[in-house]
Amino acid sequence: MNKIIQLFKITLLAITFGTISLAEASAQTDVALPSDAGVYNVKNYGATGNGTTDDTVAFQAAIAAALDAGGTTANPNRANMEVVILYIPNGTYLLSNTLQSRDGHAAWDGWVEGMYLQGQSQTGTILKLKNSCSGFTSAALPKAVLQTGSEDTYTNTAKTITSLTSTGATATAVCTAHGYTTGQSIKISGATPTGYNNLYAPITVIDANTFTYTVASGLASPATGTITAASYTAGDGNVAPFHYIRNLTIDVGTGNAGAVGIDYLDDNQGGIYNVTIKSSDTGYVGYTGLMMDRQYPGPAIVKNLTVTGFTTGISMRSPVTTKQYGMTLDNITLSHQLSYGIENDANSMNIDTLTSSNSVPVIYTKTTTAHQVLLNGTFTGGVSGNNALTGSGSVYCRNVTSTGYGDVISNTNGNNVAGNGSTPVTVPEYESTATFKGFSSNINGSIQLPIEETPDFNDTTMTDWVNGATAAPVVGGDYLASIQAAIASGKPVVYLPRGSYGISNTIHLSGSVQKFIGCCAYIHMLSGFPAGAPMIQFDGGTAAYTDIQNIYTDGPVVDNSAQTLALENIKFVGYSNTSSGTGNLFVEDSINKGLSINYPQFVWARQLNIEEVTTSSVFNNGGAVWILGFKTENQSTCGSLLVNENGGWAELLGGFFYTLSAPTVPMIINNNSSLSANYMMDPYSSFNWPENIQDIEGTTYNFTNTNCTLYSGAATVFSTVEAAFGPTDSLTLGSNVWTFGIVSGGGYQLRVNGAWTGSGTGVTMFDVGGTLYATHAAGTWYDWNGTAWANTTLPSGLPTVASAAATSGSLSVNGNTWSFGTSTTGGYKILQNSVQAGTNGGVSMFNDGGTVEIVDSTGAWYYWSGGAWVADHPTGLGTTGIAYPTAGSLIITSANSAWTFGTTTTGGYQILKAGVQAGTAGGVAIFNLNSTGVPVIVDSTGAWWSWNGTAWTSISAPTL
Question: What percent of the chain has pLDDT over 70?
Answer without folding.
Answer: 61
